[in-house]
Amino acid sequence: MKIIQDPVHGYVEVDEKILPLLDSPAVQRLRYIKQLGFSNLVYPGANHTRFEHSLGAMHLARLMSLNLGLSSQDVLLVTVSALLHDTGHGPYSHATEPLMQQYLGKNHQDIEYLVLKGPLADELLALNLNPEDVCEMVNGKHPLAGIIHGDLDVDRMDYLLRDAHYTGVPYGTVDAHRLIRSTNLTDKGLVLKENGINAAESLLIARTLMRPAVYFHHVSRIAESMIKFAAHEHLKESGFEKTAELLLMDDGQFYNEISKSPSDNARKIIKDLHLRKLYKRALFVGMDQVRFSSLLKMISLKDERSVAKTVCEAAGIDDSEVLVDIPSIPSPMSIEVSVKNHNLLLSLEELSPLMSTLNETRKSQWRMGIYTTPENRKIVEQTAYEVLNIEKVTKQDKLII
């Protein structure tokens, strides 16, 4: 058994027989991909990586598997799947996920291209593990997938704890060990014991509070919008058939590739990001200001560049001067894991009055961003209000920057 010192969980035990997977290029690449993309532009300590998170998720997955009394082979399957669950991430983590979805038609959980053939497949077969089972664990289709891909999964437990630790934000408090000890496995899946309700509520509260403070902080969203635009401009010049190759790079390789791009726009954006010369908010508005019909249309089109070009044409500026950020509407948190209460299986919503409040809070946290260069801020703000049919805020509610 190999022992690794982790700043969040203490000593993490790694079975000797899975060390070849730990040392594989696909997993080692995660050392060079930041967990939170560009959040270090806001929180200087947020330089932790997907590799660290994968170790933490693996550690918690093993603990939960043992707590559930799984067979040794199922414990191995769950542990290995947790280790590999983030190998499909592109550079800067979620910052390049939209490129993967738009140009490759997949997301980071689709790891078949890494696992079903090549070195990882050989190592899994040597462990008597079916590579297809690992893929199903990661994309949520396996009967045991809820451990790493569910409502109260170890992936979420680790990243909330880890992201709070490295950002210094005091909202990611999760009693992971309480949740693990309060979970049973039944023929209906994972079941939370009644004594785990408070721990489950704390996880949901942490998720809700971390969204605006870290995951959807406006600076991070601006930087992510800039990198998406830079990558798009680069691929437009170098060829969209190179998308897969680009997204297999780590952060450093991706940065170097864009910095020598044939696109002037791409090279400028990547240089500005390096110097922290960011676009500014012209608009940063919630659902209460965006007319719902307009909002649904913009989200359904999934074409932020078209919206940006519309604003630029109306404002009379170059279409590289505006970036539009339209996040998906937050889906309601619904813990499908039932609560065992006097031999009845009830949903957590039936027992926790917090659920509806937290879901309303998540909706109120949604923001659409219109970002531009500092010198164009005023004209873009005025134009965006007009062409996007957005209600102006009152003076007392106006966002001060």
In short:
The model has no long low-confidence stretch (mean pLDDT 91). This protein is of the alpha+beta class and 401 residues long. The protein contains 20 helices and 9 strands.
Describe the protein:
It contains 20 helices and 9 strands. With 401 residues, it is an alpha+beta fold. It has 2 domains: 2-215, Hypothetical protein af1432 (Orthogonal Bundle); 279-329 and 367-401. It has a 4-stranded mixed sheet with strand order 3-4-7-8. Helix 12 (218-238) runs antiparallel to helix 15 (264-274). The chain is globular. The termini are far apart.
Looking at this protein, list some descriptive labels.
single chain; 401 residues; alpha+beta; Hypothetical protein af1432; four-stranded mixed sheet; three-stranded antiparallel sheet; 9 strands; 10% strand; globular; HD domain-containing protein; HD_domain; HD/PDEase_dom; HD_assoc_2
